[in-house]
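Support request, please re-run this one:
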Amino acid sequence: MTHKPKPIWFSVPNPSSFPNFPLHSSAPLLRRRRRKFRLVESDPKMSISYSPCFQPLKVFSRSNLVRSTGALTLKRCNVVTCMKKSYEDTSLEAKVDFLLDHVKWDDKGLAVAIAQNVDTGAVLMQGFANREALSTTISSHKATFYSRSRSSLWTKGETSNNFINVFDVFLDCDRDSIIYLGKPDGPTCHTGSETCYYTPVDELLKNPEVEKNELALTTLYALESTINQRKAETSSSSNGKPSWTKRLLLDDKLLCSKIREEADELCRTLEQNEANGRTASEMADVLYHAMVLLSLRGVQLEEVMQVLRQRFSKSGIEEKNSRKS
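Re-run finished. Output below.
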């Protein structure tokens, strides 16, 4: 006679309070029904391990279950409590192994690995990583890759000392490419360039024989680069009319008065309930004039972003108090 799987019902707290407890495993099958779950087992005497946990989670057999007031409860401990404790007691190594098992490595055991500057957003370089490279990156916080030509691991900076200090690692939606989000100690490219991406395709199409060194920059950093160029030009004589940026760079009082003026106009967009487009326009003016001041003071925008990042874990009150001391 064929054994028909019998569902075991047990009551648990609201599962949303346990974000690390997935409910979509294929074996054993857990089905949501109101705030109850049922565990389908093929043999009423066997113990079943719950696969999504990093270490096997044992669900007690029937001999360890007792019935109380019509609801089935565990004699030893609540099921969800066991699950949570099992997850918390799991070693980091086991968690990393679980993660590595869920990356979609190609047929050579590799995945694309991209290093990105955590403050500027600049794409620093692209390489490949295997299980060991990703595991090493997680444990050492140094961007580590797999060299296909040498068939070995290599850590960026092991020769030049220009390490990429990794703050976080991201997988894409398909889990077949990786981003190392970090801070470089120096130039990333072996040519001495800040990043490996400095050859614009438009320039190559116009003149393939001339390679132009122009870093791929996002909007704010492209603006910063233009302001710095204007600053470099202030030392040379010019017969034409100076640009507005040059005028600001040469006149501290004018620059400071414009920053105050634009900040006031930005506040008025709130006070007078002006259109959102107006707020964006005034904020752009504030940013531009403030960035001219930064250039004049020799402060890079990246330094400002780093300060902001370091404040993420602090409350505003604590941060202000630390400045006073």
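The first helix runs from residue 79 to 89. Residues 4-77 have pLDDT under 50 and may be disordered.
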